[in-house]
Specification:
This is Plasmid mobilization relaxosome protein MobC. This protein has 98 residues and is mainly alpha-helical. The chain has one domain. The protein is built from three helices and no strands.
Length: 98
C-alpha cells in the first residue's frame, strides 16, 4: 500500500472512489461472464445485446469520470494509473467487439 496525500476533505471522496472502483471491477467481471455464455453458444437476442452495450457504455463513462476525479484529488497523472490498479483494468471481451 502507498500513502496518499490529498487536499483537505478529499479523504472521503477518495474512499468513495475506491469503493466505486471495486464495484466497477465486479461489473466488468459480470460482463465477462455474459460474454463467455454467449461465446459458448448461449441464447442471444438483439435486445439483450443492446442492453449489454448500453450498460457497457455507462460503465465506460463512469470509469472516465472516476479517473478524472481521482486525478483532481491527487493532482497528478499517476492517479489514473493508481485507479486502474484498483479495478476496471480488464479489456473488453471479444463478444462486445463484434
Amino acid at each position: 500500500k502507498h500513502t496518499v496525500v490529498v487536499a483537505q476533505g478529499g479523504e472521503d471522496a477518495l474512499a468513495a472512489l475506491a469503493a466505486l472502483s471495486a464495484q466497477c471491477s465486479k461489473v466488468g467481471s459480470n460482463l465477462n461472464q455474459l460474454a463467455r455464455h454467449f461465446n459458448s453458444g448461449g441464447k442471444d437476442t438483439e435486445q439483450l445485446r443492446a442492453q449489454i452495450l448500453e450498460e457497457l457504455s455507462a460503465l465506460t463513462n463512469f470509469r472516465l469520470k472516476a479517473e478524472e476525479t481521482v486525478g483532481e484529488l491527487y493532482g497528478n497523472h499517476q492517479a489514473i494509473i493508481r485507479l486502474r490498479r484498483i479495478g476496471c483494468k480488464k479489456s473488453l471481451p471479444r463478444f462486445f467487439l463484434m
